Fold this sequence. Notes:
Helices cover about 30% and strands about 20% of the residues. The chain is of the alpha+beta class. The chain is globular, with a radius of gyration of 25 Å. The chain starts with 18 loop residues before the first strand and ends with a helix. Residues about 1-10 have low confidence and may be disordered.
Amino acid sequence: MSGTPTQRKAVRYPPIAEHGLIGNLRTAALVSTDGTIDWYCCPSFDSPSVFAAILDARRGGAFELRAAVPAETKQFYFPDTNVLITRFFTEDGLGEIQDFMPVTDANEDDDPHRLIRRVVCIRGKIQFRARVAPRFGYGAHPHTVRMQDRTALFTSDSLSLALTATVPLECDGKDVWTQFELSRGETTVFAVDRVSGNAPPRGCPHAEAEQAFTATVTFWRRWLQQSRYRGRWREMVNRSALTLKLLTYVPTGAIVAAPTTSLPEQIGGGRNWDYRYVWVRDAAFAVYALLRLGFTEEAKAFMGFLTQHSDRPEDGLSGPLQIMYGIDGRSELPERELPHLEGYRRSAPVRVGNDAVNQLQLDIYGALLDSVYLYDKWCEPLLSGQWRGVCHVVDWVCEHWDQPDEGVWETRGGRKKFLYSRLMCWVAIDRGIRIALHRGLPAELVRWGPVRDTIYRRIMDEGWSPARQAFVQYEGGDVLDAAVLMMPLTKFIAPNDPVWLSTLDALGNELVSDSLVWRYDPKASPDGLEGDEGTFSICSFWYVEALTRAGRLDEARLAFEKMLTYANHLGLYAEEISHTGEQLGNFPQAFTHLALISAAYNLDRALG
């Protein structure tokens, strides 16, 4: 080993889009295009971070691994897997880092949550350097380092991690570093493991790393082989499916909205939220998208999650479901700020937890029962206990659909009677009726039917603005909202109905720019939040699907192809896209990828 420890450089935050994601169906890590892991929580998605340089380059902690000389880098996924390859092109050689997390069936307490970084020299020779600087507890918990041969043990009060390597390591205060040179065909392996109790750190020799690599590739390819999609955009659809799978938490069947917290919706702004939880809406839509492609196990697992964790002892006005849960099913997600972290590019505050858990969002029941309907249709018939749960939900919706709520966009500016919430209440009751009739199941159809029809008439009468010649955001208002794009997608209205086509034109004129779609105008409809935001990618794909169903296929295909240009180099999307094309918000976002799948599926089918 030669060289000196890396010197601290000026603070630089890579663009959000310059990252890939790896994971083991329990947690995930972001790897930037320069080879740095700058986001990693252990042992689960919503655990405190170990590496969080993406939220504070100085205090967050990182696992830096890169060429020690100037290099051009490129990143891609090993085909049909979630194994990430970062390549370094230098004057003297070509090397690459293979990043992956083996997927195991181990008990949660016994799972080491191993993260493997294998460095390979492809041709010539190349020098690499590494610096491992964990910062436990979102950078707030101190730790010690104990060195032994080629192993470093990082210990904090809440977590211990072992770093093992096939090259010598050096300690530098509370960090560990190394520099090494590889020639063609040579390999170095780094492995990070959670250490439990007094168990000795486990090494990762070359043969074991090769075996883990092969097993991980095999796991992802076997999973992807279940997909029935053979359409025009197979590569993008497969990547979106693989991303949704990465966001699943296998121990409970939960699906997180995103693996990150507090990546900003506006640089320097305060719309920074923690998305490492299970939104009923997002997860239900994800199940819908995966079922479309032929993946049924995820639907079964999520149904199990809901059955086990969603019962409230007293429903009251708040309903039988919360809008979100912890990945272990917990109901309390207290929101707090971390003032010691500066935020991505000084976009404060950094938040953990999410106070929206206490909001009323009636639309979740429609999203859920639409997915339950498809589960019953495409996967397996509902069990008697599951049907009782469906009846309970539909009965509650029949009683409470007319409440004002915070709506799908989780506004913090007061409750309103949002059209989208009414729409999805209609969906909830309609799908309950459809299941009952299809399966011959007992249900209060004489009650459900009239309530469904009442909601329909209410939307058509009170949700329509004669002045705007469009359906609007809430009753009595005149603000346009991209959420109404779901009206034909849910089969509430015919996609060629004149009043819908008028709405589609109004949305296109006011909220759409080069295929990018804003949710609504926050100046016209104050949402109680400071700052601006980018366009919402899920709305952009909803727009594609609405155009498709309206028969405007040339427009739909052009809008879809344009949206594909906003993906990052790996086909991943954050929540939003700025007017300059920059990805904003938590990354990658389940909502966006599930909408891409649905849009691609329906557009491809319409094109024939």
